[in-house]
Each structure stands twice: as C-alpha cells, then as structure tokens.
C-alpha cells in the first residue's frame, strides 16, 4: 500500500469514528462506480449524507487545507454518485440528502484535526 493510500485509510477511519460519535449511522463505505468513489454514505435524522473525506499530512505554518481538493470535477462526480446510489436503493423522490466534506489532518499517524463541512456542496452550477 502506498503512503498516500495509508494516509487515506487512516483519514477515512478517523472520519467514520467522528460521525458515529456524532449520531450518524454508516450505511456503506467506499461506494464505487467507474466514475468515482464515495467515501462514506451515512444517515442522520432521516437525511442521507454522502461524505467525501480528504486527508493530508500536517504542515506547520501552512495555509493548505485538504478540503480545497474538492474541485468542480470532483463535485460533478460526487453528484453523479449520489444520484446513482439513490436510484439503486430506490429512494423516494422526496428523500432528503446532502453532500458533506470531512477534512482530516494527520501528524504522522495521529489525527491533528478534523473539520466537518455539512452540506458543503449545494445547488449551483459548476
């Protein structure tokens, strides 16, 4: 496993632990299709939450944050993944859902910080 893959696995585990502690029920992890992957699909208060996890190493005095890597192309793929998942599960047209982003910063293998951006991707043109 590459170093980047290890960082991603640690970040996704930290994000999963974080949301479970905050009352979410994880429905599936690593939902894959040819055009992308959704890291976590969870549910809280009847809302399906599609969660993209971005993890990076901690760099002191850096303004870089992992969530900035969720660009327009990524957003298009995430939306397509959400729509596909909902169709596969035959979700009601009225089923509320949203896309969240969790940013995990690691210092070595220890979590330095977690930022949770709820409803981070909303209706707008990309």
- Identify the overall geometry: globular
pLDDT < 50 runs, ≥5 residues: none
Q: Number of folding domains?
A: 1
In whole angstroms, how far apart are the ends? 34 Å
CATH topology: Trna Endonuclease, Chain: A, domain 1
CATH architecture assignment:
3-Layer(aba) Sandwich
Strand order within the widest beta sheet:
1-2-3-4-5
List keywords for this structure.
41% strand, Trna Endonuclease, Chain: A, domain 1, single chain, alpha+beta, five-stranded mixed beta sheet, 126 residues, globular
Task: Tell me briefly what this model is.
This protein is α+β, with helices and mostly antiparallel strands.
How would you describe what is shown here?
The chain has one domain: Trna Endonuclease, Chain: A, domain 1, CATH 3.40.1350. It is 29% helix and 41% strand. It is built from two helices and five strands. The protein has helices at 3-21, 72-88; strands at 25-33, 36-44, 47-57, 97-107, 110-121. A five-stranded mixed sheet has the order 1-2-3-4-5, sandwiched between helices. It is globular, with a radius of gyration of 15 Å. It starts with a helix and ends in a 5-residue tail after the last strand.
